[in-house]
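Quick look at the format.
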Amino acid sequence: MALINVSSLDFSEIRESIKDQIRINPNFTDYDFEGSTLSFLIDILAYNTYISSFNANMLSNEVFIDSATVRENVVALARQIGYVPRPRKSAKAKITFSIDTNEFPQKPQTISLRKGTVASSSATFGNQSYVFSITEDVTVPVINNTAIFKGIDVYEGTYIQETFTVDLNNRNQRFILSNPGIDYTTLNVRVRDDIFTNVSLKYSRSDSLAFIDGSSAVYFIQEVEDERYELIFGDDIFGRKLANGNIIEVSYIISNGDEGNGINQFAFSGTLVDNDGVLVARDISNIFTVESSSGGMKIESIKSVKNYAPRIYAAQNRAVTSNDYESIVKLIYPEADSITSFGGEELDPPRFGRVYIAIKPTNGLYLSTGIKQNIRRELRKYSVAGIVPEILDVKLLYITFNSRVFYNTNFSSSPNDIKTKVLDVLNEFSKSQEINSYGSRFKFSKFLSLIDNSDSSIVSNETQIEMKRLLQPILNKLVEYEICYGNRFLISNKDGFNIRSSGFKVAGISETVYMTDIPNSNGITGSISLFTYQNSKINFVRSNVGIVHYEKGEIRLSAINIVSTVITSSIPIIEISAVPVSSDVYGINELFLQLDVNKSSVEMIDENLSSSLPKISRDIVI
């Protein structure tokens, strides 16, 4: 007997399987299925089987975290291993304003800023105005007839309050917050005994069962459907149990996430009262912005949940391997945009007993000293004895390119329009997560296809890439430097000039000098020399000032006294460039890839003129 393939997702295959099954019956041996009414019934059976197979396939996918696509299912699977996705994060700003009480009929001793809305953006951003709130009252004294609210932290979003009454007779009672888009780090949970008392006990959010007992006033949180959150309270074993009739008061901020970043103009819209409870609505100064709003983030994506949930579970709240540190740092510092970690044993020379963690924040490139100290302090709760975590700054590895883009004039009359499209596509690619993350890879073939597909008139392109690091020298001091690229250097010229730099001056030489390499006969290492370049003439002025290791992609400069640099913005900079052996560039360890479109070149060329052009060449100096 023929078996019907009920798991097939191809309608034709299912239909043929049903027909084969019917043909087994002698009454239908020579039956014309295509021209009969029975064909209509077979189609109905085939469609029904097809839909059932599709639903079964989708349902089976949603059972596993790797294949699930619906957010509620991914979150539910992550919940089973104790992972709570990061919430939408409110942008934070710091503001200052004052109240002049000279003209007040009654001189107050203190003035309080009530929790809730404090300010709104005084200009619209993307046709939308944003409000900023606080979750606790702020009270300041009146000194010399002036009350100064200095450096107040305000959070983007709407302040909301909710109340629940505990009913132990309702076994299905759940404490689900009504609104999506909540930044649960702003949650303030207090519990009163009943409706007749105003005394409340503050509950704190707990992320684990460690260090809590039956008397701990804690609550747990989990994401449920529609990006909302549910509060879970203890059972007198882990956390204090709620009693019948308890009143739960919850306040929080509903955030717009990263949309609230970058706001620096505010108008006051809060509520002020004096120590007698009298409303203060006059003589309020303009708001001075101490820090623009930043730190706003979208809710954790499905991709991120799939990535971190199993790793956090594997870490089991302890940091032993470098992957454990990477996962736990994401919990400690959710504002991290990208994280990488590696053991000291991977370095040359190795540094045993240390783990190095490189963090790129969502806003900006570098972490403040205070944030680094806080991360190290929190890591002590998880790390085992004998392992010392070190927080590294971002080390940018720039990729620049020189492209000749050939186009067909029959399909476009304006090369500038084509060039604009190419640059727009490459700028968008430079901002993508594919390249802007630790451990990323610049894929040369994909880069070429992006250029080719930018416009239908483009027929081909010739592109060369370079790697570039920025050296920040310490001026007027003898200092040794090591510049690592993490990718092998190409030796295209055995006479040198495979490494090039921008200009700088060193002690003892009055002219501007440049850096280059002289390869050794082994093709593995070489020496670094300094030369001047005037009137199109090269003059070597100092040799053996360092070594270059082509296989490792490293440059080491011996003690050198740099007194100034040609490139200066806020700090002195020396740009050092090299061509990689492989056109695919990797960001290893703490190296963070950046596609520098602004320092690259795109040349538009009529394809009919391509045969007469010379090859792309590198200049001797930048």
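Next, a different chain entirely:
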Amino acid sequence: MASLTLRASLTFVAHRDRVLSSLAIVSPVCLPSRLPHNARGSCTHHGMKVAYAGVYGVLQGSALEVAHHKRILILEEAASMPTVSSPRSGRMKTDKKQPARIDGNECLERYLRDVRHYSVLSRESERALAKQIVESRTQWQEQLLEHLLHIPLLLAWRPRIGQGTVRLTSLCRQGATPTITEFKTTLQRLHALRGEMRHKVQGQDVPPAHTVAPLQTTMRELLQGLDWHPEFLHRAWHKFHSAMTHATVAGQYRRAACYVTMLGYSMETLCRLWRDLCRVYSVMEQAKQEMVNHNLRLVISVVYKFRYTGLPLSDLIQDGNIGLMRAVDNFDYRRDLKFSTYAIWWIRQAIHRAGSSQSLMRLPEYCRDNVRRVHQVVDAFTVEHGRTPTPQEIAQRTDISLERVAWSLEHTPEQISIDNPLPGKQWPLRELLPDTRLTNSHEMLVQHALQRYTQDALACLTPREAAVISRRFGLGDRPAETLEQIGRDLHISRERVRQITTTALDKLKQHKAMLQACLEQ
């Protein structure tokens, strides 16, 4: 029996490369070249587990890794194609190390041209996609919570929750957040249940259902009344997905063993749950992607109205697309509302926030909206009546309180041109502003003095120390170099270069030229 087992293991290793190359899923290095065996030449129990893990990883990961492998092949084929330089050069470049750079305007033109290929969805198609997103997301969340796959991340964050670095609002939705005392008590009880579960499943490959089922039921009842935040559930899913990927593809069971000992599931059960959740999650993401692609034209139509912000058009489109993706996540088809009407608000909000993040002082969004509405009313009233409106007239037209109108007018000073003449003067404002592009004469004198003092101080060093200091700090109109670059040229180690630099700096600190320079500064 031992010889038969050893022969089967060696046959498996011999045909390993051929099987994996035919499947084109994972690299042959995922399996060891020699299975563990004892002194008599028989394959050990651990060796059979390793062989089983390799075969199991190939069979279980094939459904998900084929698409990933195809994507890698497409990227490698695209990277190996010769790149064409810009039209100005008119030459063909085939060097993959120096790909041709694509101009920003050309990239934007390609994007706008590709967007035209996506047609506008009808009302029925929008409703069908939105319904598919909501149903698949609900099914995915129910399966995730039913099988307690969010508990490992929750217990991993337990110290941070106790210290206050993780807020409860990032775990539960607004309005359903328990008190911090109640939540800590729940976590403490959950930690005790994890210890009991680990004690019962320890040393068993397939935990018995009659021993772990009561503990699983207690965990569900303990967390039943909490409304979890979607972002927390996504993080819990990515943690579980990463652990199962390492277990089935690379044969690394350490992270997946956490779910076995903590939740009481066998490895086979976890793999089945992982496949089911991956299928539902891929359906949801595919519907989201299709919904976003067919509404990219909406983002461009909204973005063109915000060109006055001064941001590049490409940045505005990116921020608008972020708002579109948020709209897809939060859209509810049961409200009987058209998606474009709902998504415009999210797109505008994302663009407004991107514009406010560029300023030195970031204002709340409602304040910026009030300022924008006030200025629009002021411009329209000035064109209509030929005078500036009073705060009371602005408040009547905008339905904003008089205090907020006064605040908006006070904290948004009027912009003036630097070419306009000053009141009572003949010269414009730009004549009084300094030209920062030119070097000040005082700064030039200070720089010359510093250079002279530096040269005097370097004269007290040895030639080797002076050369190291000059190259390390970029003296004498040369770029600064790293310790490795200097050591490679001088044929010494990085540590020796550091020692020389420290010794030279100690000498320079005591030189009278450097002391004189510090006094003048």
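The beta strands are 83-84, 92-93.

See the schema section for token definitions.
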